[in-house]
Batch of 2 targets.
Target 1
Amino acid sequence: MNEYDDKWEDRINALMDGELSATDAELLKTQASDDHDLACAIIEAYQLQQAMGAIHVERAPDSLRKRLRAIPRKHRPAPAFSLLQPRWAMALAALPLVVIAVSLMRPDTPSASEIAQARQELAIAFAYLDKAKLITGREIESSVGQTMADAVTDSVNRAIKSQNLNSKEKEA
Amino acid sequence: MKRLLMNKFVIGLFCTLFTLPVLAQEDELKDLPGFVDFGDLSATYGEPKITINLGGTMLNFVGMMSSSDSQETSDLISKLKGIRVQIYSMAENSDAAKSQFGKTKSHLKTSGWEPIVQINEDDEQVLVYMKSVNGNMEGMTVMVVDDEEAVFVNVIGQLNPAELAKVMDRFDVDVDLDLE
């Protein structure tokens, strides 16, 4: 402000910003016509205002914009799920215990209804095996006669029985 | 969103834990020499009319339950390690079943199974194969394909068909089968 008293500074700024009333503005101009330093200060203020208005806003480089945008993300609180967080690490450590507990809780003994169901299924399986036996017996009988059918059936039964005996002997 | 994923993960984990013993039992049967894979005909005929998969553990319980009624039945069951049945109803075309019948038969032949009975009629095919290892019976396979149904039975362990008739009466179960 060219060594001029600071008391005018607020009024000049107000004049530049259009915040000075018309009376005060007129008064300031009157005083400036008598005071050379004040007139120079007002002129400099106008020139500075015009120079500021002439400055273009330059676009920041992309790299700088990216870095600026990243700042809020860096200061964001940590996400809720991360395996490195203590609570998740503890949960993972407890997992084997859960597995063991679940396997121990699983009943190895089937219920009475499950066994009854299995018994019924076994009866069905045996019935189909019996059916196959009857069909084969009937077919053999019709092809070669009852005597041969019995002979074939008996020989098969003997073969299986001898294997069972063989197995029992080995077990003994 | 992440909480939802975590919930799904936990539910999936528990389902896996509960399913594992069932799969382990199936795998246990698959490793036995008397096991036969019958394939899957559900794509052609829909889900099987009857599916039975009884493992050794369940058969032991059935055997124990039967011991009070009949020692003979209990003894017969005690020799079994597993029993599997698949029965498909066929409305019209039995080609797929006959094709599977042929594939299984070829597999049995090349896997050391011995044919016991084979019937090849136009309207009915029956096959009984037996597997023995070192003189011990390890399994029996029975397949019946006619115009109405395809029956696949796999007995794992020892079973004498002659003893079946003796124990059938002991099972107080109404099994309705068309034997004609």
Target 2
Amino acid sequence: MHEADAIVRIDNLVKRYGSMTAVDHLSLEIAPGEVFGLLGPNGSGKTTIINCILQLLRYDHGEIDLFGQPMSPTSYELKRRVGVVPQEVAVFDELTVRENIDSFCALYVSDRRSRRTLVDEAIEFVGLRKIERFFPKRLSGGLLRRLNIACGIAHKPELIILDEPTVAVDPQSRNAILDGILRLNHEGATVIYTSHYMEEVERLCSRIMIMDRGREVACGTSDELKGLIGTGERISVELPQTDAALVERVAALPHVRAAELEGSVLHVDCTAGAHNLADILTVVGETGLGYGRVLSEPPTLNDVFLEITGRELRDEA
Amino acid sequence: MLSSIRTCVLSLVRDRALLVWTLLFPIIMSSIFMAMFSTLDESYAPVTCNLGVIEDANYDAAQGLDATLDAISGSSAQERLARTVPLDSEEDAIAAANAGDIDAYLTVDAAGTPQLHVAARMNGRLSPEIMRAVLDSYLHTREAVVTVAAERPTLLEDGSALAAFRSDAVQTVRLQATKSAPDPSARYYFSLLAMTAGMGSMLVGYAIRNAQPKGSAVGARRSLAGVPRWRVLLGTILGAWACQFVCMLVALTFMWVVVGVGFGGSPALVVVATLVSSLMSCAAGSFFGGGTSVEPGMVSGATCLLSLFTGLYGTASQRLADGIEATLPALAHANPLWQMSNCFYALLYYDTLEPFVTSCLTLLAMAAIFFSLAALRMRRLSHDQL
């Protein structure tokens, strides 16, 4: 990607809070139309990066360009092209759904007539038409999150930054929110999505940066990231009784990286291979013990994070 | 900016705290004051003395005395200072005084000099003192007439000099040192208006916090706007000022129309006083809301404390306020609530606009200082962390 084409370009960003380094020499580029995921445990520096991009924070070192231009606290032209959905629901309790969206949209669009159309579209987009005259106190957590999103996207920004928008949201609302984000992307918006939910990031993002302690751990598509680690497949076999010799035989198979018994379940980590499951079941069958449920899973981003950092994604940083 | 004004006005007028502290509070307090002060005017009625008069031969011989007493007790008297009770003897008078029927009684000695005898229970009270002054005046005038008759009798021939003496002899004159009639309760209402403005600054602070990156989640979000932050802040301040002004105006109208409080003869200047007071309140609120170290409870506490020095809490607090103003005027004048209260006070009582203008200018200067400090605090937070 040519530098000038990037919607967001961060070069060697460093942000320190006293002796603690929140972002440590981080660089990234986001191309137009991407859904870029920032994935990392709490405290890994995701929100700090967002705040630096938005110039809410001064940073110690580095450069940030948006739409090919340097970003500064007074770059209002650039800010008009950005929409932000903060982690915390940030709406006026005293304004109705419609008034809230209009109020935040007015921070970017001064013309009332255009704004009315934009607000209507945003209400329609998040499905709050029937409750547009309600005050936020009457809304459920999921509906509040939708309102929060509508306030950030009503002015039709080219770059949308969503900072953990599904925290504390029920599964149904979460699906609606994720579908909405994909629709925004299909309509042409570039999206930066931060989360510590790997499933969401995997589902939404065309490219993912895994972060830990303010540093980039890995960056690429979901498949590229999974390809970085040795595990290609994780197979679990439920056994009627445990057999230490069986574990040794399975571990000796080609493509098997590790095998262990957890209760009555045999867990086997394999490298990528075409016949891993068949090979393992053959060995198990040869013992004459039989087997119960069998599960074969591809590696997750958590496996990637675990293998690279030695910690779980949802551990505290 | 118009949108920021609209957002601020909408969010404040729907805020129950605003309605309670800047609208309901002054109206409820005014109603309570109205009930409390309904009997206050009675204490400002002229003091009347029940005066026993022993109408013996000496009394009849005392020239002009009967006319003097008639002037202060008759139905035609401007201020009825005495209610005379004719008595036959001093014994009757003593009995009436002991019975509480009269406060004092008058005897005239052989030389024609009136003597005032005050009942023991009335010693040191105001009404006998007034009678004493009346009799002193009578004696002084009588001596003057006698002197003129002896030395320049021609002056008395045409009667004009005598009429002049009579006119000066005994009379009560209502002197009004102020533009409007004194209203003992007005000070309470003006202090209440000032307190309302003080409480309003709490709400302005809330509105400002919603425009500050570190003030609230909404403030952080608004600071990402595609318009300069000063426009959002200015719109918020103007909206909050408008709300505060309207609330004060409603409270003031209630006091004027329902309670009957006088505000002087110029409604336009009363509006100016309200505008300036609400602006000052807005400036203070901007300062408090510009940071995160001042809690709303601290603002209301400070308002209650400063109201003490405007005389809101009764005669003791008024004496304290007056004492501070007399001994440490700079300290009294540094109290913005005192200046607000004084704006209305000056309009009601002073003939000249000078005290009103001085208070207004002082409030404007204070507002400028608070706005400058607020700007410094807000600037410092501009790009600080969320």
